[in-house]
């Protein structure tokens, strides 16, 4: 009975909805060539070691450029991070030389004034990513896909960096979601 009432309540909403206008010049995904037609993504791989504030390798970053975005894979070894949530961001410069602060990596990729955060109506920025969870032993495994940037953006002349922060990103607070200091860094080239 509840199910029928819910369906009846939703029908007027569905009937009144209109399809979004589509640009007639752009092909649909069904019209795009794919593997059956011999077209494959570039599958450009980037990444490397993730280092801690004291310069020790604590994990590995793999970045795979696809046709519709970038796939990131992060593996953190035991004792690599403090247990709990940590913010992750893509930064503009591939430089982790200033151990302990990692400010040489610059600001976020695709910086937007007052636009930091995946939940921010003014954003998000190209470097915004979901948080990573570190287990009680400090290890972590993470895989995320983002359409907010491209492999070409990350592999430009000065590269890019993945920064892991000391605390969770709330995806709204400016400028970094309250994520705190930079505790780990990986160069992306």
Low-confidence stretches: 1-23
Distance linking N and C termini: 58 Å
Please state how the strands of the largest beta sheet are arranged side by side. Answer: 5-8-9-1-2-3-7
H/E topology pattern:
HEEEEEEEHEE
Helix content: 10-25%
Please state the CA-atom Rg, rounded to the nearest Å. 20 Å
Keywords:
single chain; 189 residues; mainly beta; Immunoglobulin-like; seven-stranded antiparallel beta sheet; two-stranded antiparallel ribbon; 9 strands; 10% helix
Would you kindly provide a written description of the structure presented here, covering whatever features stand out?
The structure is a single chain. The chain has helices at 2-16, 151-154; strands at 45-52, 57-66, 69-76, 84-86, 88-91, 132-134, 140-146, 160-165, 182-188. It starts with a helix and ends with a strand. It has 189 residues and is mainly β. The model is unreliable at 1-23 (pLDDT under 50). 10% of the residues lie in helices and 30% in strands. It has a single domain (45-188), classed as Superoxide dismutase, copper/zinc binding domain (Immunoglobulin-like). The protein is built from two helices and nine strands; from the N terminus they run αβββββββαββ.
Structure at a glance:
The protein is mostly beta strands and 189 residues long. The chain has helices at residues 2-16, 151-154, and strands at 45-52, 57-66, 69-76, 84-86, 88-91, 132-134, 140-146, 160-165, 182-188.
């Amino acid at each position: 009975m509840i199910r029928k009432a819910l369906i009846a309540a939703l029908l007027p909403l569905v009937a009144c909805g209109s399809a979004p206008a589509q640009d007639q010049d752009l092909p649909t995904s069904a019209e795009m060539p794919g593997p059956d037609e011999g077209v494959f993504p570039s599958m450009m791989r980037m990444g490397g070691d993730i280092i801690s504030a004291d310069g020790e390798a604590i994990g590995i970053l793999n970045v795979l450029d696809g046709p519709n975005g970038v796939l990131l894979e992060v593996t953190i070894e035991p004792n690599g991070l403090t247990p709990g949530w940590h913010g992750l961001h893509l930064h503009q410069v591939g430089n982790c030389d200033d151990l302990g602060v990692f400010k040489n990596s610059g600001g976020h990729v695709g910086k937007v004034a007052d636009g930091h955060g995946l939940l921010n109506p003014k954003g998000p920025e190209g470097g915004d990513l979901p948080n990573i969870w570190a287990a009680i032993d400090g290890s972590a495994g993470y895989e995320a896909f983002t359409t907010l940037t491209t492999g070409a953006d990350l592999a430009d002349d000065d590269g890019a960096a993945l920064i892991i922060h000391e605390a969770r990103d709330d995806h709204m607070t400016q400028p970094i979601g309250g994520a705190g200091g930079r505790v780990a860094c990986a160069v992306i080239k």
